[in-house]
What we know:
single chain, alpha/beta, Rossmann fold, four-stranded antiparallel beta sheet, 25% strand, globular
Amino acid sequence: MDQNQKYCDICGEDFKGVFYGKGSKYNILQCPNCDLIWSDPLTTKNFKETIDSDYWAEDVYIKEELAQKARFRKQLTKILKLDKNFKEKKILDIGSGLGFFLDVCEEKGFTAEGCDINQNAVKYCNREKVRSRVGSIDSFYKDNSFDVVFAFNLIEHLPHPKEFLLNCKRILKDDGVLILETPTQNSLFHKFARLGDKLTGYKLNYYGVNSDGHIHKFCNKTFEILKQLGFEIVINEKINSPINEILGKTAYLSAFNKYFMRISVPIVWFFANLLGQQNRAFIVLKVKNSD
């Protein structure tokens, strides 16, 4: 699979991507309308490679279980402030991974289920009881069947995020809620990466965007466009990834890049928290009532 896409998936074919940066075997393009950036080609992986991947076993995920759950608890607290009857809601966690968010839902007494296209992750999630299925947001889920859909750290990996968003809207009830967490361009990390890339003649790609990884990277301007898909923005705020999670991912970098990142990341992470310029967006979208 080699998906070359020159136009913005959110805004459509009338908005051709303009050059933003480049990687070793791909370019990074930006939408002139909503500022979404993406890798070209989007991906070279096939579906079997994705469902068989053993990413879930990496120490960076297993070791961060407590930190991840602590963050999920904070996020649920924010949602509970919006709806006091949350315990009565039917919840779907798309991209449920190792099941950490489902664990937190169970702690709180919520009814939640999950799905993930990685069969090894689903197996780990279901090691004590069945809570997740191998699959995605497809015909398995009926229209208007969920009150709340969570999708943490997922939409940036999808070749076609607009299709995903419309499917979420389809399975959500009127006034249903979609909660996203995704890397954002509106962060100190991204601003430093942009500066370094330009100063080196586009040789320093630290955006976290690449074919087969984080394919897309969103920003506030992109999220505003989602209103045209039938969503209302309820919450749009920034949060930081746990620093150990960020540093853990440097294990796959070259020796120089690893050294540079391990020095610079803690500094940027500290000032990002101080200035409210954290690296991820926490977005709550409400489906507009069809009436």
